[in-house]
Write the structure tokens for this entry.
Amino acid sequence: MSATAQKCRRCDAVLFPARLLCPGCGGDDFGRAVLDKGTVEQSTTLSDGTVMATVLPDGGPRLIARIYDTAPGGRVALTHDPAAGPGHAYVPIPDPASPAAGIPQEER
Ligand SMILES: [Zn+2]
């Protein structure tokens, strides 16, 4: 399961995290963009061993994700599934049922 982001239907800007208004055009009509893969830019290891990274998705905005076994420059599959494991970057989102997740109900 790929990660998703909010996509402005007026100007096609891809936004993550979700916004109430598009910062590009001021629009408030959003759809969904699928973020399949991305490139790890930088990573850091927390005191508990968790590795966090900045990831630049293909066609999406830079985001922060938990990674497992990928060095900077490496490719990862993006997911909202915390159990996905190695080869993936876990991108947390609010409860998908929440309007704050930015995904229109009919597209979930
Ligand atoms: Zn827009």
In short: The chain has one domain: 3-94. The mean pLDDT is 89.
